[in-house]
């Protein structure tokens, strides 16, 4: 199943893809009640029952709604760095023996179609197309053998990064968490629709129509099962948590001359069998303080 979350006016809704049409309902005047995240958290057949119910709702015209991130408030967003060998090489690092992890915060999340914001404090806004795994079952000390049973499904992420701030210290967190830089969507695809572990999928990033990153999820050094198992050694994974699995080579910071995103650009991340995440880029208005 494929689900998306949206707003229309002052209403929030969810839709499911049924026979090639998006059908759904919002939170006023319909039988709708719930969210993708809530249904994942409920477990069992909740997600499937919701999809069946939504498939009988009216058609949702995506041209007339604004999309939301599929999981609006994930409890944790765990990102993985240096998880494609070619990206590790272009970044000048030695390939680590264990996954390199850093957090993203929900305050940075935006939806498909929403502008990625280049902050006025820096011009080093870079693109990173990535596969994201959505946790479906709570667990700690999860074995690699059982790890994929804890994944509800997948989506797409653009881990847009402010390189100047990322590289100020050995910890990357600040440069990875500017407001309006974590693009996520456009929809959530249940794991049964994809190859196990989302393996063997082409991943491509395009900037203004030009391919800037191209690889395959088979090239992940630490695959989804390994990431789930390794992260759960320390952290309890809960339904709705996100694991953003890493980006392949081609980032703008590694190019000569460097290629950073600017206002007016359009960036797309496409993953085979999932879809395309598309965002324009805008400049942040100059300001000194915000409440």
Automatic annotation (TrEMBL):
Q: Which Gene3D superfamilies match?
A: Fumarylacetoacetase-like, C-terminal domain (3.90.850.10)
Could you state one GO biological process linked to this protein?
A: carboxylic acid metabolic process
Q: Which family does it belong to?
A: Belongs to the FAH family.
Q: Does the keyword section mention Hydrolase?
A: yes
Query: Which GO MF terms does the UniProt record name?
Result: hydrolase activity; isomerase activity; metal ion binding
Q: What keywords sit in the KW lines?
A: Hydrolase, Metal-binding, Plasmid
In terms of InterPro entries, this protein maps to: FAH (IPR051121), Fumarylacetoacetase-like_C (IPR011234), Fumarylacetoacetase_C_sf (IPR036663)
Q: Which Pfam families match?
A: FAA_hydrolase
Hydrolase found in the keyword field: yes
Organism listed in the record: Sinorhizobium fredii (strain NBRC 101917 / NGR234)
- Residue ranges of the Fumarylacetoacetase-like C-terminal domain? 76-282
Q: So where does this one cross the membrane?
A: none
Name of the featured protein: 5-oxopent-3-ene-1,2,5-tricarboxylate decarboxylase
What SUPFAM superfamilies is this protein classified in? Answer: FAH (SSF56529)
